[in-house]
Amino acid sequence: MKKTFLIILSLIFAASAVFAGAKEGAAVTKKKTTAAEQALFPDNAAAYINEVEGECQLKRKGESYPERINDIFIPLFEGDTVYTEIQSKLEIIFDDASIIKLDPNSKLTIKLLKRGKTNKTLIELIKGSIMSVVKKLTKEEEFGIRTKMAMAAVKGTEFVVSAGDDDKVAVFDGAVAVTGYDMEGNELHSIILDKDNETVITKKLRKPGKAKKLSRNFVKKYNEIKDLRGKIEHVRNYRRDGKIKKYRLERRLERIDNLKRMKRGGIGMTADQKAYIEQMEKMEPFYRAELNEIESKERKTKQRIKKYMEDKEQ
Question: What is the pLDDT of residue 10?
Fold first, then answer.
């Protein structure tokens, strides 16, 4: 049995050559599309990068070296590894409308992305910390985070897992069953970790300690959890209303505006980064035209509804 710390939580950059992972991403889209469309709509991937801040890297399965992550909406697949450097952060959204945030100086590998009648996701947290907001799951669904020394099981919750000399689990909403394992993978001890509580799994004992109220370091993360919750609720609402295309167009244009500001500043930018920004600027008219078309249709629909209601009252 591997000497691993397993956290099981019962719970999509297809693109042009300017994007990291283009070779892998080409399989994401079934129909022939433009680079702009591919970069915007990674519809067939089970996970994708929703936000990137600072120096982050992606190493595809089977590749020897990682590439810098410049863009959002990069699809992720089984075997992919992502890294964050100091003062860098990364968000990943899954197709079941769950979201995770990888803190600075962290690293994870996606070990399993099984999709079908039931969703099963397994992530290996190699170092650092992950903050997660996971949607309520069915009995058959699983969402896992593996580190070194224990296993936690939930059915939808808000929590943080950190991996270091000692591993920690903190719950902000919901409940988590945390189980410790020995070096051979045998179960040692389990506890139920409720809302506003944390536990530590020490390297020496390899089992969760007694649950206690969130420490100051975790309490400081409440605003981050709130922000993450707001983001995924926003995505869920857009999906429910059939407006996910509009959401992605708005995000893409917001990203382009930020990149243009970076270009004007020009401080510390590499030639590759400048070339990437120029490519995004070329795609901007396409995105704005698409968004304008959607908003025009929405206005016409509202006008028709208004007219219908007025006629009905007469």
Answer: 34
Q: Read off the DSSP letter of residue 73.
A: S
In tens, the pLDDT along 151-169 reads 676 767 888 988 888 999 9
Which tens digit of pLDDT belongs to each residue from 275-300?
Answer: 878 888 888 899 899 899 988 988 88
pTM (2 decimals)?
0.76
* Domain containing residue 220: 5-230
Q: Do residue 121 and residue 45 come from a single domain?
A: yes
SS3 state at 83: strand
Amino acid at 172: F
Q: Which residue has the tokens 């070329």?
A: 282
Q: What is the dihedral of CA 91, 93, 94, 95, to 10 degrees?
A: -170
199-202: long-range contacts at Cβ-Cβ below 8 A with a sequence spacing of 24 or more? 199/168, 199/169, 200/166, 200/167, 200/168, 201/5, 201/149, 201/150, 201/166, 201/167, 201/168, 201/169, 202/166
User: Into how many domains does the chain fold?
Assistant: 2
The last residue of one of the domains, among 161, 195, 230, is 230
